[in-house]
């Protein structure tokens, strides 16, 4: 049932005005409560699609896959719209690459003609570096703005700086001479809401007033964020990474990377983080950076007119987004390569690295945190790790894998319930309820009241002589100096034990609230909440190991390394390893995650513990399911995404998956030179197919090529307007030479230039594992199935996804197993030695039962051509 539901969900046409009007990447689509259906309007589904004849197209100067000719032999200029794509369609990677090669050849052939052509050639060559430079600059500037605004609005829930309203709590007290070491966060310039409203700084009344104002600001920020998203940019909600992965695989979602989405996501991301919800800004920063890359790509024709080239810019933009999110340029490049990119050539690697470099440089210049670092929780450790610590590190990896498996299942179950119940129809109410519960429970606990990034910073930080946190409330040796460079392991004080209990409560709170928060209709990232959960667990484990080593330093596992008075265990290191393990368990990232955390700490020494924890978390998580959270949300939303990480081991053939099947409408085909304009228009109007194979004739039935429905419609409409003598009875010719016609015949219409002369074909005996591999590596939308050169059916990307879902759910394939009979299809010629005829240009005549051979019976029971 899950596979059936997955492919029968719908983006209903009436919900989106832009599908039938001139659409652009900046259009707003109301996506609240709407689900996608890939049976109704997409190029992936060439048999079940439904493309309106009057649809407008945004891209112009599109080209055909045949680069040696113009789009119409009888026209001097290309037809606007031919070779472009509608909303919620998948691009043809092969055709886009052919268009780019033809453009490159054309520019190279003209660059020696004049200085102007040489300048255009240089501009084209450098346009890729220019667009990633602009993307990096914009991403770094917006990230700095978001960081500064989020910190100020987070502190606004607790009070305000009277001397300078634009200062947050920390900045307000920088210039004060009245702060003390123990109470460094208190200064006369900073006033809490209780002091401003009731004039009390301490006491029950002050606590209650601050509690009420905390909840008030949290609800206000959350309500404003969800209202802006719902009214102005529905695509600004969520993390954005599942949709970015789908877009980079070739799917088109108009408006998802537009200017309105960029503006609203930037504003609402600040509000969502400031509201105190269990979410982060790191994931949405990837979406923000990709919006910048998409907008700047329209300034360069090389990218604005080619969807495949545009996705190279988006890959570089995603690297820049992670670079500014974590201050990890190299980790951003690896994240783009490992996690989000579908097509990643070598030049994209260089440009991604450059974009990440530029973005990190801009953010460092802004210095949003005032610590000369790119992130708030940058730490450095000076104590080495010891071999016996690998055991607790691996235990943290096991915890991260279990947390990831639990979170994915729980969050997907809740999101599925949200889609299938009335609760999902009230996104504003859901956000308000979640924000209210979060604020009410978070305020009493100081560790949940903190901004999540500040919490991670405190958990990562090692206890030094200048630390006043409860986590550093150890009992000091009275005979030793209190200010030393290397503080030895000490017994925990009451403050540490109290902090451990508060951290345990914070861990439970974060686990529960993150499940219900990720997926609500506000910008919500998952990196920071997952890292916070792992950091809390890691810090608790680190303190436990530290105390164990202190009180039992004579045990054989501690005896060699942990001498009395030595600094043996670093609890902050355990917090860092736990954060990496939990994030790896949720996302199933490996190499990029280790590099990101390594860049956070600035030390090569801790790569081995990180690798051990991350790989353990991935193995444990994969034992419960190989999908990460982003792949799970892609499958939940029904996006047409073929994951290259999945393995296909089922023994089926192309004939088992192709369409048409039994009781399906027959496969519609065109002939190359004996159909009229009216015949083609009638076929387009009477069918909903998005493409038609072209055969030589009714008698030979050999494949000539493949014509898309949209290209046929646009070419015929353009020919009627621009060419004289084209009428309904005009013969349409897909052949190279026009057949001889009677003198009184109307002028023929030559459409060979819009014909794909080399469609991908497989035989009916091709194993499906090879077909799936071809679709993944070449980015195909459709593949024709032939038998001895005769077209039998078609396999689309949607058919591949349906089949993979059936295999995953252990559903038997619709066709008999591959070993059921030797010959799968009737021979091309009948028992009388003559070719089997077709009628209405679409199908073979039914075979009389008296003519059936023993080899054909099984096929005819399962499918009809």
3D architecture notes:
This protein has 865 residues and is mainly α. The protein has three domains: 131-175 and 183-366, Clc chloride channel, CATH 1.10.3080; 387-476 and 486-626, Clc chloride channel (Orthogonal Bundle), CATH 1.10.3080.10; 654-738 and 745-811, Roll (CBS-domain), CATH 3.10.580.20. The strands form five sheets. It has a three-stranded mixed sheet. The protein has a three-stranded mixed sheet with strand order 4-7-8. A three-stranded mixed sheet has the order 9-10-11. Helix 14 runs parallel beside helix 24 (629-637). The radius of gyration is 32 Å and the shape is elongated. GO terms for molecular function: ATP binding; chloride:proton antiporter activity; voltage-gated chloride channel activity.
Q: Could you give the topology of this structure?
A:
Blueprint: H1 2-6, H2 93-110, H3 115-156, E1 159-161, H4 169-172, E2 190-192, H5 193-197, H6 204-232, H7 241-248, H8 259-274, H9 282-297, H10 301-304, H11 307-326, H12 329-340, H13 346-366, H14 390-420, H15 427-442, H16 446-449, H17 452-460, H18 494-517, H19 527-551, H20 556-559, H21 571-587, H22 591-601, H23 607-624, H24 629-637, H25 654-657, E3 670-671, E4 675-676, H26 677-686, E5 691-695, E6 703-708, H27 709-722, E7 731-733, E8 749-750, E9 761-763, H28 768-778, E10 782-787, E11 790-796, H29 797-808, E12 838-839, E13 843-844, H30 857-862
Parallel strand pairs: 3-5, 7-8, 9-10
Antiparallel strand pairs: 1-2, 4-7, 5-6, 10-11, 12-13
Helix pairs in contact: 3-8, 3-9, 3-11, 3-13, 6-8, 6-15, 7-24, 8-9, 9-11, 11-12, 11-13, 12-13, 12-22, 14-18, 14-19, 14-21, 14-23, 14-24, 15-18, 17-19, 18-19, 19-21, 21-23, 22-23, 26-27
Family: Belongs to the chloride channel (TC 2.A.49) family. ClC-3/CLCN3 subfamily.
Membrane topology: Multi-pass membrane protein
Protein name: Chloride channel protein
């Amino acid at each position: 049932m899950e596979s059936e539901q997955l492919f029968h969900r719908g983006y209903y046409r009436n919900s989106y005005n832009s599908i039938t009007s001139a659409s652009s990447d900046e259009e707003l689509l109301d996506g609240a409560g709407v689900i996608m259906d890939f049976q109704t309007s997409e190029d992936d589904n060439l048999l079940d699609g439904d493309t309106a004849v009057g649809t407008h197209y945004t891209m112009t100067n599109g080209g055909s896959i045949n680069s040696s000719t113009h789009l119409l032999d009888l026209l001097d200029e290309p037809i606007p719209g031919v070779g472009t794509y509608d909303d919620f369609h998948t691009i043809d990677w092969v055709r886009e690459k052919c268009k780019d090669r033809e453009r490159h050849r054309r520019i190279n052939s003209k660059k020696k003609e004049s200085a102007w052509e040489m300048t255009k050639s240089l501009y084209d060559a450098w346009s890729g570096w220019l667009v990633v430079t602009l993307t990096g600059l914009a991403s770094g500037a917006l990230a700095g703005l978001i960081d500064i605004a989020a910190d100020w609005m987070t502190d606004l829930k607790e009070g305000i700086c009277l001397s300078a309203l634009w200062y947050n709590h920390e900045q307000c007290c920088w210039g004060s001479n009245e702060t003390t070491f123990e109470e460094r966060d208190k200064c006369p310039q900073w006033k809490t809401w209780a002091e401003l409203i009731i004039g009390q700084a301490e006491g029950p009344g002050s606590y209650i007033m601050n509690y009420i104002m905390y909840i008030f600001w949290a609800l206000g920020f959350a309500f404003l964020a969800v209202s802006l998203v719902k009214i102005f940019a529905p695509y600004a909600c969520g993390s954005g990474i599942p949709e970015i992965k789908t877009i980079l695989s070739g799917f088109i979602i108009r408006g998802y990377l537009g200017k309105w989405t960029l503006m609203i996501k930037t504003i609402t991301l600040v509000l969502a983080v400031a509201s105190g919800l269990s979410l982060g800004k790191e994931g949405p920063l990837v979406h923000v950076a990709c919006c910048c890359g998409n907008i700047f790509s329209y300034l360069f024709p090389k990218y604005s007119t080619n969807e495949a080239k545009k996705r190279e810019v988006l890959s570089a933009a995603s690297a820049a987004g992670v670079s500014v999110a974590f201050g990890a340029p190299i980790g951003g490049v690896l994240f783009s390569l490992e996690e989000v990119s579908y097509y990643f050539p070598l030049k994209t690697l260089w440009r991604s690295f450059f974009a990440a470099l530029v973005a990190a440089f801009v953010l460092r210049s802004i210095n949003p945190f005032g610590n000369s670092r790119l992130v708030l929780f940058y730490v450095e450790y000076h104590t080495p790790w010891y071999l016996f610590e690998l055991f607790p590190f691996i235990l943290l990896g096991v915890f991260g894998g279990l947390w990831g498996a639990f979170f994915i299942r729980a969050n997907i179950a809740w999101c599925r319930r949200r889609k299938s119940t009335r609760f999902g129809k009230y996104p504003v109410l859901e956000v308000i309820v979640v924000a209210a519960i979060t604020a009410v429970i978070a305020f009493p606990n100081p560790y949940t009241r903190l901004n999540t990034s500040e919490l991670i910073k405190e958990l990562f930080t090692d206890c030094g002589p200048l630390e006043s946190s409860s986590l550093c409330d150890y009992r000091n040796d009275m005979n030793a100096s209190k200010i030393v460079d290397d503080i030895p392991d000490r017994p925990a004080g009451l403050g540490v034990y109290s902090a451990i209990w508060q951290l345990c409560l914070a861990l439970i709170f974060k686990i529960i609230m993150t499940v219900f928060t990720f997926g609500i209709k506000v910008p919500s990232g998952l990196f920071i909440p997952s890292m916070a959960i792992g950091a809390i667990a890691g810090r608790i484990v680190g303190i436990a190991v530290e105390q164990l080593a202190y009180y039992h330093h004579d045990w054989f596992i501690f005896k060699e390394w942990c001498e009395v008075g030595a600094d043996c265990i670093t609890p902050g290191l355990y917090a860092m390893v736990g954060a990496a393990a939990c994030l790896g368990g949720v996302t199933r990232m490996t190499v990029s995650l280790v590099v990101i955390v390594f860049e956070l700490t600035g030390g090569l020494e801790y790569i081995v513990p990180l690798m051990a924890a991350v790989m353990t978390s991935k193995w444990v998580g994969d034992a419960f399911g190989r999908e990460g959270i982003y792949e799970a949300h892609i499958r939940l939303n029904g996006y047409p995404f073929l994951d290259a990480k999945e393995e296909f081991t089922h023994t089926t053939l192309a004939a088992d998956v192709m369409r048409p099947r039994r009781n399906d409408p027959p496969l519609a085909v065109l002939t190359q030179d004996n159909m009229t304009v009216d015949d083609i228009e009638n076929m387009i109007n009477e069918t909903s197919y998005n493409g038609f194979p072209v055969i030589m004739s009714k008698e030979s039935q050999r494949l000539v090529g493949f014509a898309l429905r949209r290209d046929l419609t646009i070419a015929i409409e353009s020919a009627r307007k621009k060419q004289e003598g084209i009428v309904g009875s005009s013969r349409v010719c897909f052949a190279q030479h026009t057949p001889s016609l009677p003198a009184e015949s109307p002028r023929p219409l030559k459409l060979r230039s819009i014909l794909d002369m080399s469609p991908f074909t497989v035989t009916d005996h091709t194993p499906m594992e090879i077909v799936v591999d071809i679709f993944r590596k070449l980015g195909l939308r459709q593949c024709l199935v032939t038998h001895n050169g005769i077209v039998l059916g078609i396999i689309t990307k949607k058919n591949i996804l349906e089949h993979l879902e059936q295999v995953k759910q252990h559903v038997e394939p619709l066709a008999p197993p591959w070993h059921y009979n030797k010959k799968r299809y009737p021979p091309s010629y009948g028992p009388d030695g003559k070719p089997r005829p077709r009628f209405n240009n679409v199908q073979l005549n039914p075979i009389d039962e008296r003519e059936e051979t023993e080899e054909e019976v099984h096929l005819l029971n399962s499918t009809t051509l």
